[in-house]
Design a protein that fits this description.
heterotrimer, A mainly alpha, B alpha/beta, C mainly alpha, A: mainly alpha, MetI-like fold, 2 domains, globular, disordered N terminus, C: mainly alpha, two-stranded antiparallel ribbon, 1% strand, disordered C terminus
């Protein structure tokens, strides 16, 4: 998609024709801002004010200590560190497992190629509930439940199909001349992959990694089942457990502070990389 | 260049995973025995570590007090208690963990649940409880703590044997705002349904809402009221037969439709999602709530500090039903895993928490009830003590109405429709019969 | 190609295939088998399983809560699906028609999808739907429509409230997919049509829509997959125990496998839970094949 930003003079007739469009989208955008703005305001407020609906009056002033409390007592920092660990390690290892596989599937013709590609594609359609029960049982017997290593293993395994799918399309679009040139120079196919093709695939890898990052960061169900101790919890489950515990302590201001802390990284990442994220979502989806 | 960076990153992160992840795998399955421990303290101390799956969240008052107690316990005896704060999710996570043979020595939860659902994992503690400990003044433990609850724990235990030690007792009754009652000119708490309606009228005249409820407690309200109409046994029979078809259901519908018509129940009650109901009480808008003695603790952050709490038993309603002498009471309780290797140490911790200094502290920090017989109840709950002492019949939780997910869901849907004016009494009774 | 590549193929594919087998293939097969047995605890040894034939399935379909769950998920899929597809398509068309600030609008509309559902859901319940001071009721009262202010989390409306909250977050995601499809249509087509005298609607219906068929199929499949996994929202709107208006198959399954949270007697039935998993997967497969049939893969190949 070429970014043709040809500066035309403001064509008022054209703008007017588009006005209804602006209106519709504008209302939606304003609504979104109001919702998110409320969360931020609530995070600086107290429980009483939230439930009495006096959020905007700030009768007792701002309460930034909600954030300090959330970070320390609710152990948000540990949820954060956990999520960071899970996402960084999983994203890296997913690429290490998926990129070679995607490359082989896209470049080489062999029996079972099409079958394998469909196999990975069907994984996308299997809902998590089909797989959690036997896995829970299996890992219980192996005594590795509620451990970080297990969760990372699962996150990698679950994101491999989509990543292979995406990178497959990507490799497909890379010209074969690179490999031909490398072959002439006497480079073995494996080396060709690691030294030439992989770096060439960087844009695709970055895009799919960003997408995986967001998915793993917000992941809830798998971690709820497999890593639900205070030590191993990631942010989404941690947030839910904070909400539960806050139900019994009544600290809603602190809870919203926690909510903001949790969604900030994704939000910041998103602002800086929104173009790339959107490209990854659409790139992988089209060929579906 | 890029490739080198990439592989370097991969190696670093893999190391991080190995160190962080595998460490986690090893330690959560079987806690490292006595890593810390009392090597520095005096010689008579043990260096055992026990694993305790707790129903509390670390940030709750109970959780914070227990965390302090764990430190004090370690100082005193050298035993390390490795606490795993499950929160209420323990209801879902404990059993799979026990089934999978994870090393758990001690756990706690509601006395009905621990004995009923997890009974087969419990260690019989009759012998341990019959001994005396340094905080029991030479008497057996069972003599110094609340007898009613010990009897309850014993009756619920597998084979009728004491397998759990109760703590944090609670009663389920009407919690109310004494200040509102005073302003409305109510001098005595209602003991019958007629008195109840009269009190509601006065509260409404004073500009407040008499009662509210939210989706977590609708089933209890229904169960209680039905038991006041037809008695505990017939109410429980409806649950066992999975048919809510007693003719008195129609009376229930009529009486609560009247509550709605006269504006005695909060107009938000139908849509309240927990904990919205108790927040209405905290804000001083609602006078009464059929809830548990844990309520002052749960809303202490949003209710004013000088909230004047009172409580009374749910009034008698029908001639065939129970009166204020029938109530649900219960407690949380500690249970020891049958397969534990450290029964004595775990029991020592239980004694530590249910007698003496830490029993009092736990009660004080959580506006709860202490276990020791001669302890004083917090002032917010003094009325509740009278109700508990006068209770002769015990209702199970929600009088059984939450035992079947379908019945619970049916109550929630139809009661909400009833108290928002969408169903009349007959409609309610018919919908409940289905 | 050549056989010396065989080693490379195997090595490169091995980890991925291994992970797939262990995490997808084995569990799926085992779950399918489990659904035909009476199993209480999910970690029970296979020797304790009692064969039950179609018993689990029969019990499920006779349970009012499960039937409600199916009705709910059906409505979510159909009504929610139509709503989300139409709104996201509309937005997609608007944003590709040359408005200024396209990137900005696109980012903001996609934003709710990026924020954790737990956070969004809590905000909807406590702010938007609050009966006394919530956004909707305050706005209605402010505009003078006092009587329209309703109990959004009351029994009749809570399902729709939940659905709307969920769909709000999903619009952005599907809009992006539409947009990428629209942007692949060569502008020459439109120019040629304009020269021929086609107006906006004709351009849309004769050019855009037909060429979006493949993207449409993708959107439907993705929507189906994410709908079947509807869980967190259900939990948020019914936090303590299940409600007929908000229950979904997945949240019901969670209760079956791990035990209901509030009743003192925890009845677990993992066999039935497995059966639910099987039912949901069948639905996904059926929808997938159905869309394959009606929407041929004839979109623009660039």
């Amino acid at each position: 998609m070429a970014k043709n930003k040809i500066r035309q003079k403001m064509n008022w007739k054209k703008e007017l024709a588009l006005a209804p469009g602006y209106l519709v989208v504008g209302i939606w955008v304003v609504f979104t801002f109001v919702l998110i703005g409320w969360i931020i305001l609530a995070s600086f407020s107290t429980t009483r004010e939230i439930f009495d609906g006096n959020l905007f009056k700030f009768a007792t002033g701002l309460h930034p200590e909600n954030y300090v409390k959330a970070w320390k007592t609710h152990k948000v920092s540990s949820y954060f560190m956990n999520s960071l660990l899970y996402t960084l390690v999983s994203c890296t290892l997913v690429i290490i497992v998926s990129a070679p596989a995607a490359y082989v599937l896209s470049r080489f013709k062999f029996r079972g190629n099409g079958f394998l590609q469909n196999l990975f594609a069907t994984a996308l359609g299997i809902p998590a509930i089909m797989i959690i029960m036997p896995l829970f049982s299996l890992f219980s017997q192996m005594h590795v439940n509620q451990s970080r290593g297990l969760l990372i293993f699962l996150y990698i395994a679950i994101n491999v199909p989509f990543t292979i799918f995406f990178l497959n399309t990507f490799f497909h679009n890379l010209s074969v001349t690179f490999e031909e040139a490398a072959a002439i120079d006497g480079c073995s196919p494996m080396k060709t992959f690691w030294m030439i093709m992989l770096p060439l695939a960087q844009p695709g890898i970055i895009t799919v990694t960003i997408f995986n990052f967001i998915t793993i960061w917000n992941e809830y169900f798998i971690s709820l089942i497999f890593a639900n101790t205070a030590k191993t919890r990631p942010v989404a489950v941690g947030l839910y457990s904070m909400i539960q515990s806050m139900r019994y302590t009544g600290d809603w201001g602190g809870m919203f502070a926690a909510v903001v802390i949790v969604f900030l990284p994704t939000f910041i990442l998103y602002i800086f990389l929104s173009e790339k994220i959107i490209a990854s979502v659409t790139g992988g989806a089209i060929k579906g | 260049m890029k490739k080198k960076l990439f592989s370097l990153m991969a190696i670093v992160l893999t190391c991080a995973m190995v160190l962080g992840g595998c460490g986690g795998a090893a330690q959560s399955a079987a806690p490292a025995p006595a890593a810390s421990g009392a090597a520095s303290k005096s010689d008579a101390k043990s260096d055992v570590t026990i694993t305790y799956y707790s129903m509390w969240n670390e940030t709750e008052p109970q959780g914070q007090t227990i965390a302090q107690a764990v430190d004090a316990f370690k100082e005193k005896t050298g035993i390390t208690v490795d606490v795993n704060w499950q929160g209420r999710d323990i209801r879902k996570t404990l059993q799979p963990a026990l089934d999978a043979g994870q090393d758990i020595d001690l756990f706690d939860e509601d006395v009905e649940r621990v004995n009923g659902t997890w009974g087969k994992y419990l260690l019989n503690v009759e012998d341990l409880a019959a001994k005396s400990y340094d905080t029991t003044n030479g008497k057996p433990l069972t003599d110094v703590i609340n007898k009613k609850l010990v009897d309850l724990a014993r009756s619920l235990g597998p084979d009728g044997k004491l397998s759990t030690i109760p703590y944090q007792p609670s009663t389920f009754l009407v919690m109310y705002n004494k200040d509102i009652f005073k302003t409305a000119g109510i001098t005595a708490v209602p003991k019958t349904w007629e008195e109840w309606l009269a009190a509601c009228a006065k509260i409404k005249a004073a500009g407040k809402t008499p009662i509210t409820v939210d989706d977590a407690y609708m089933a209890s309200l229904f169960g209680y009221h039905m038991a006041r109409l037809i008695g505990k046994d017939k109410t429980l029979a409806m649950v066992t037969n999975k048919k809510i078809d007693d003719p008195a259901v129609l009376t229930f519908g009529e009486q609560w439709k009247e509550m709605y018509d006269k504006g005695y129940i909060s107009k938000n009650a139908a849509g309240n999602i927990y904990p919205a109901g108790q927040q209405e009480v905290a804000s001083g808008n609602v006078a009464m709530y059929l809830n548990g003695t844990w309520l002052p603790n749960e809303i202490k952050n949003s209710a004013p500090a000088d909230f004047n709490w009172g409580s009374f038993a749910y009034p008698a309603v029908g001639k065939g039903g129970d009166g204020p002498e029938a109530n649900q009471y219960g407690a949380q309780c500690f249970g020891i895993n049958k397969n534990t290797k450290h029964a004595e140490e775990a029991f020592k911790f239980i004694v530590f928490m249910t007698t003496g200094e830490w029993d009092n502290k736990l009660a004080a920090d959580s506006i709860g009830v202490p276990m020791a017989n001669d302890a004083t109840w917090p002032k917010q709950l003094t009325d509740a003590k009278a109700v508990l002492d006068a209770t002769t019949t015990r209702y199970p939780w929600a009088v059984g109405m939450e035992n079947e997910a379908d019945i619970n869901a049916k109550i929630k849907t139809n009661f909400a429709l009833l108290v928002s004016g969408k169903l009349d009494a007959k409609g309610f009774a018919d919908a409940m019969k289905k | 190609m050549k056989t010396k590549n065989k080693a490379m193929i195997v090595i490169f594919l091995a980890p991925a295939v291994f992970l797939y087998t262990m995490v997808f293939l084995y569990p799926t097969i085992r779950t399918v088998i489990m659904s035909f047995f009476k199993v209480e605890g999910v970690t029970d040894a296979v020797s304790t399983w009692k064969f039950n034939g179609m018993g689990n399935f029969k019990t499920l379909f006779n349970t009012p809560l499960f039937v409600s769950a199916l009705q709910n998920i059906g409505l979510i899929w159909l009504v929610g699906g139509i709503g989300v597809m139409l709104v996201s398509l509309l937005f997609g068309v608007i944003l590709t028609s040359g408005v200024h600030g396209k990137s900005f609008f696109r980012s903001v509309i996609y934003l709710p999808n990026v924020i954790s559902a737990v956070a969004m859901g809590t905000m909807w319940i406590n702010y938007v739907y609050n009966p006394d001071f919530g956004l909707i009721n305050s706005t209605l009262k402010g505009l003078g429509f006092k009587n329209a202010a309703a109990q959004w989390t009351g029994p009749e409306l809570v399902f729709w409230s939940m659905l709307i909250a969920y769909c709000f977050g999903m619009v952005g995601y599907h809009m992006l997919i539409w947009m990428s499809g629209i942007e692949r249509i060569p502008t020459d087509f439109y120019e040629a049509a304009t020269i021929e005298g086609a107006n906006v609607f004709q351009r849309f219906s004769k050019i855009t829509l037909p060429l979006l068929k493949g993207v449409c199929r993708t959107n439907i499949v993705l929507w189906t997959v994410s709908t079947m996994a509807f869980f967190v929202w259900s939990q948020l709107f019914s936090p303590v125990n299940l409600s007929a208006s908000t229950v979904t198959p997945m949240s019901y399954m969670y209760e079956l496998v791990f035990g209901a949270s509030s009743s003192a007697i925890t009845v677990r039935d993992s066999g039935a839970g497995a059966a639910i998993g099987v039912i949901l997967t069948m639905v996904v497969i059926v929808v997938f094949m159905f869309t394959q049939l009606i929407v041929r893969h004839d979109d623009v190949e660039l």
